[in-house]
Amino acid sequence: MYGFHLIDRSNVENFELVRDQLDRVQSAANGEFTTEDLKTLIEQGRAWSVYLTTDAGTVKLVSVWEMVFYPRRTKINLIAMAGSGFRECCEQWYEFVKNIWRSQGATSVTCYTSPAMARFLSRAGFSEKYRFLEMEL
């Protein structure tokens, strides 16, 4: 059984509980953000985080997301995810988290990820929709 915790701008001080987990994904972010940037986004009300803990209080899984508004759709963009026990955490809390996203007005969830992570997330219902291309200016 995992405990569920939401971090928003009203309790952003709790971000320190997940900082170590999120520090691990900075290298995968390709210079797009730092852990401190994620905290700043939450402080500004532009992002939110959930984290799951064991009965002993150990953080098992953390994710950070933002809202992306298109003219005809509102999407959740998963900015970062770190930890372990993904399958077990999803079994207990995934539907609840999806309901939070729906309550925020989202109709779908997106994320930019490596091919290996894309295969992993496909087990949670994600499927490839676009190929992400980038060019440095």
Task: Provide the fold topology.
Layout: E1 3-7, H1 19-23, H2 35-43, E2 47-53, E3 59-69, E4 74-83, H3 86-103, E5 108-111, H4 115-122
Parallel strand pairs: 4-5
Antiparallel strand pairs: 1-2, 2-3, 3-4
Describe the structure.
With 137 residues, the protein is of the alpha+beta class. The chain contains four helices and five strands; from the N terminus they run βααβββαβα. It has a five-stranded mixed beta sheet with strand order 1-2-3-4-5, sandwiched between helices. The chain starts with a strand and ends in a 15-residue tail after the last helix.
Mean pLDDT: 91
Compute the number of strand runs. Answer: 5
- As a whole number of angstroms, the C-alpha radius of gyration is 15 Å
The helix/strand series, from N terminus to C terminus, equals: EHHEEEHEH
Strand neighbour order, sheet with most strands: 1-2-3-4-5
Shape: globular
Main beta sheet: 5 strands, mixed
Distance between the termini: 47 Å
Estimated structural class: alpha+beta
Task: Give the helix proportion (percent range).
Answer: 25-40%
Share of β-strand residues: 25-35%
Individual helix count: 4
Poorly predicted runs of 5 or more residues: none
